[in-house]
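Checklist before submission:
- one chain only
- standard amino acids only
- sequence pasted in full

Submission:
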Amino acid sequence: MKIAVVGAGGVGGYFGARLAAGGQDVWFIARGAHLEAMRRDGLQVYSANGDVLVKPAQATDRPAEVGTVDLVMIAVKLWSTGDALRDARPMVGRDTAVVSFQNGVVAVDEVAGAYGRERTLGGVANIGAVIEKPGVIRHTGTMAVLQFGELDGKMSPRVQALQQACEKAGIQCRATDAIQKAIWEKYVFLVGASAMTALTRLPLGPVREDPDTRALMAQIMAEVTALGRAKGVPLEADLADKLLARLDDLPREMVASMLGDLERGNRLELPWLSGGVAAMGKEVGVATPANQFVYAALKLYSNGRPAEART
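Returned file contents:
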């Protein structure tokens, strides 16, 4: 497959590098120092699942140079979705599929709005990975899973082709006939993990081991579950409890990417996570006090570290 990865950060860099090492024709759309390092030194991934060096890396900031591809993977931060979809346009042909592996629950609708539901796949990426420095991706733990599927649930040839490409690359993956449910299940987990690691400035280990912070995370996830069910997503009523149990098996040092953005003074995905839950809750009449609290507590950092903040 010819694949374009728009956003070569933790998600796009890790999975794109695996796919490239597995023999796929992968192009990375990147900018700045990260792009220059990839051009000069290749793309290096450090992971307990095995290190990967893609050198030379096919990396550019000019998507038109890439030409039409079979698949576009959108892996940018949520505030950059519109720009990423515009960047992708020169690479999207009649038979190109576009899949978002971003956080949140709204990106798939933005892809469909830009390119039509007939070109859109839903996607979920479960991984803890960041840009350690330009040209280098650091993966925490061993969890690295992709889920994807057609919006209508059909097992199409393009979904099967992506599954085969992932399997050839050694990527744990699942082609699903219920991608919207999978997207919301990740959203429940991510909103809780992002909120609590950012609020406490600590990794998951201490958060899950303290009874008070664990209880707050459970409430945050329960509110997201109730919201999804109110919007017609078939989530199990006890999903929050099941996800908390799954969280206990994750590396103690694991953090959500929002904490990394907070610590670096970067913009946060907060308005699409707890902020999005609070906003959608008001729309459908679901109470979300814990998520509203998280949004209020972190809101002043949403656009980056405020000038008045102590370092």
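Reviewer check: The chain is about 45% helix and 20% strand.
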